[in-house]
Amino acid sequence: MSLPNHFELLASDGSARTGRLSTPHGLVRTPAFMPVGTAGAMKGMHWREVREAGADIVLGNTYHLMLRPGAERIAGLGGLQRFTGWGGPMLTDSGGFQVMSLSELRKVTEKAVTFRSHIDGTKVELSPERSIEVQRLLGSDIAMQMDECVRLPAGHADIERAMQLSLRWAERSKRAFEAAPEGYMLFGIVQGGDVPALRHVSARELVSIGFHGYAIGGLAVGEPQAVMLAMIEETAPALPVDRPRYLMGVGTPEDILEAVARGIDMFDCVMPTRNGRHGMAFTRFGQINLRNARHVDDPRPLDEESPWPSTRSYARAYLHHLVRSGETLGAMLLSEINVAYYQELMQGIRDAIASGTFEEFKMRTRAGWARGDIAPM
What we know:
Low-confidence stretches: none
Shape: globular
Largest sheet: 8 strands, parallel
Oligomer: single chain
CATH topology of the largest domain: TIM Barrel
CATH class of the largest domain: Alpha Beta
Mean pLDDT: 95
Number of strands: 16
């Protein structure tokens, strides 16, 4: 059964697309990068900074929020947007990724996944129905179906088993979502690992079930970039042109450029904040390691032409000092600098697609990364 469409395609340039997605908490410009606030917080950043950096939508996690502080508690406090103070659009992962990442703490059956809480060892059951219930309690604008994600490389039989289970869970997730208020969305997730035939089956069956949008899951989980891109090329054309396409858990700026070129509209990844906490800055010159001793006496900012104040205001020598000293401020500054760079990249992508110059933008951006940071004489 077809569901209402909240996505408007505004322009295309080759397979690259730009559009807007209407949610109960605001508009999302696409292609969009969603910073990850797993437990209802952006590590090292205030929500105000996330908003000022240009993010339209952020991501939260069903599994982690279900355990602490609890979905019912969040609902009683007005929902995730009010609870966190973010106020804007939110997408919540279904907990399917934790089926893979917490493999030592869980058991998968047809009915549900049973976890041992990583917090206190309590036994917790997460079924497709409970996953949707939790996401509705959280009040997320976009809920994800429950699925099973398999780490690659994996055998064909295991990939197919997980894909078929995910399809059955997709049907159950949709039935559980039917009572959701108007305007809220449910995305299906294409699985199938690195097997093109299984990707085709999964995409075809999900489109037959019908969702507000479609995600490509089970990538960026151990496979080479070439395999990831090949699976996008196999999958994206099988998804409806008029629905948003979300590549889960991706990734580097290079990954994003290549995936946009293949028709992807939405992304998420912990990389901007995680790398920031480890002394790495994303810039138009590529990634810069502030732990490196060559920055110890460098008075230059990371990028004096950046629109983000912290990127152009703080000396590399100072950032190096903060990182090497283990000062929390270093992680905070680099996290906001990285999130701002990702949003600047997405705005550049959207503008280029709208003007029909995406290939030129892509080449110019990659040339900047390849040229790298030019140290003073």
